[in-house]
Amino acid sequence: MTSRKVYRISGADREEFLQNLVTNEVSGVADGIVWAALLTPQGKYLADFFLVGDGDSILLDVAEPLAIGLIQRLSMYRLRADVTIEETDIKVARGLGEAPNGAFADPREASLGWRAYDGRGTETADWDAVRIAAGVPESGVELIPNDSYPLEMGFERLNGVDFRKGCYVGQEVTARMKHKTTLRKGLFQVAVGGAAPIGTEITNSAGKTVGTLYAQAGGLGLAYLRLDRVDGSMQAGDATVEMIETT
């Protein structure tokens, strides 16, 4: 499980500031936890994070490798807004099952369990296997800054983008992908026979490149696939790969 950093965003303009930047509706933090992303103006992924209301501030929970770049970008957008961003020593706890008192159900998918920010410990689990079984991408693995598009990576299915909110950075491209195009590429769950390193190229029966195999666990994996080249005889190195059809 990737280590996390938690920042505290405070100031009178904190909610409006985030609302104008991120992919999801920020008012949801009043009721709990929101998963969102910051995009480039061209609609590409920069970082994803959780936003949690905490009294007169908002906690931002982000993967540690993305933290410095994200905070630098947010600070650049701050301008004259009444917003303060401070690093905290809060530790993120996770567990499976129903959220206990003081914790928050993961907003992406129920099987991911809960998150908490009150000092309790994290439960032991194979968190990679949990997210792969749920079809959830991880920053730095399937989610690549300045490369991934959120809709191709399942953000709509995972409650990470709100098409009813107003403008945000990258909103025009994201909306166009939603309403004016049919996605021909994207992240899909696959059955994997054998094993292959993360980033292994997937080829079809004709030897053409179909995509890339990422994380794998328990015979399942996540793969970025070009749909017009998917067939029933795909390989990733020595491993066999079969796309799992979703309903």
What features would you describe in this structure?
With 247 residues, the protein is α+β, with helices and mostly antiparallel strands. It folds into two domains: 176 residues, Probable tRNA modification gtpase trme, domain 1 (Gyrase A, domain 2); 59 residues, Elongation Factor Tu (Ef-tu), domain 3, CATH 2.40.30. Helix content is 15%, strand content 32%. The protein is built from four helices and 14 strands. The strands form three sheets. Strands 9-12-11-10-13-14 form a six-stranded antiparallel barrel. Strands 2-3-4-1-5 form a five-stranded antiparallel beta sheet, covered by helices on one side. Strands 6-8-7 form a three-stranded antiparallel beta sheet, with no helix packed on it. The longest helix is centred in the N-terminal third of the chain and has 15 residues. The radius of gyration is 19 Å and the shape is globular. The two termini are 29 Å apart. The mean pLDDT is 95.
User: Uncertain regions: pLDDT < 50 for 5+ in a row?
Assistant: none
Number of separate strands: 14
The level-1 CATH class of the largest domain: Alpha Beta
Rounded to an integer, what's the Rg over CA atoms? 19 Å
What form results from the Cα inertia axes? globular
Instruction: Work out the count of structural domains.
Output: 2
* Main β-sheet, spatial strand arrangement: 9-12-11-10-13-14
- The CATH architecture assignment of the largest domain turns out to be 2-Layer Sandwich
